[in-house]
Automatic annotation (TrEMBL):
GO terms for molecular function: 2 iron, 2 sulfur cluster binding; electron transfer activity; metal ion binding. This is Succinate dehydrogenase iron-sulfur subunit. Transmembrane segments: none annotated. Belongs to the succinate dehydrogenase/fumarate reductase iron-sulfur protein family.
Length: 248
């Protein structure tokens, strides 16, 4: 199998960008896009050229590091699938595939396909945490939580912070990401005293760093963790609640 990879190359944040095409042969349909980039980079290094910078870690779809834009779509053509699990079988043999960094004003390019997603980290720093006593660990059953609440919280906690939702949104909003964090922590009794403080802090950071929610729904279509649009609705809900409650 052979593909032509049209790749965004950029030597640094302030360097001019360019698109370079590479023909990569010896591929197999079961290989992932990252496998194809590994093969390309091995050949570039062997020939004395600079490899393509791309971020990845676990390659199991749980770390969120590998996000790129593939033919204009965050992660790739397969819905709700991270880049590391996008298989080459989704492309025709001999096809041309365009690889770019995640496109968002909140994610400046660092080099080639790598972007700075620290704006998401600042949301977590603002409110994605709870304050607990750091003494002896309590018994596992000391805080009763029903199975339904636990499952709902875990569904939201599954967000891997890849940033694809931001890149997919026409307005560059991060409401799916922030709403997942707010919902996860609001459902659990741990940190309930900080619920209003958390909502206010996260909302301020959203307003400062990201665009308003477009209500377009593209975020949920690319989310590898299958976070639902109910997370988006949680942002104004928690923000409104914080206007009238002083529990934190």
């Amino acid at each position: 199998m052979k593909l032509t990879l049209r790749i965004h190359r950029q030597d640094g944040p302030s360097a001019p960008a360019r698109t370079v095409s590479y023909e990569v042969e010896g591929l197999a349909p079961q290989m992932s896009l990252l496998d194809a980039l590994d093969l390309l980079n091995t050949r570039l290094v062997e020939s004395g050229d600079d490899p393509v910078s791309v971020e990845s870690d676990c390659r199991e779809g749980i770390c969120g590091a590998c996000g790129i834009t593939v033919d204009g779509r965050p992660h790739g053509p397969q819905a709700n699938t991270p880049t590391c699990h996008q298989r080459l079988g989704a492309f025709a043999d001999g096809a041309t595939v365009t690889l770019e960094p995640l496109r968002s004003g909140a994610f400046p390019v660092v080099r080639d396909l790598v972007v700075d997603r620290s704006a998401l980290d600042r949301i977590i720093a603002a409110g994605g945490h709870v304050g607990l006593d750091a003494g002896t660990a309590p018994d596992a059953d000391s805080v009763p939580i029903t199975a339904g609440v636990a499952e709902a919280a875990l569904d939201m906690a599954a967000c891997i912070g890849c940033g694809a939702c931001v890149a997919a949104c026409p307005n560059g909003a991060a409401h799916l990401f922030a709403g997942a964090k707010l919902t996860h922590l609001a459902l659990l009794p741990h940190g309930s005293l900080e619920r209003s403080t958390r909502a206010r802090a996260v909302s301020r950071r959203l307003d400062e760093e990201f665009g308003p929610c477009s209500l377009y729904g593209a975020c949920a279509q690319v989310c590898p963790a299958h976070i639902s649009l109910t997370a988006v609705a949680a942002v104004p809900k928690q923000r409104l609640r914080a206007l009238f409650r002083r529990d934190g």
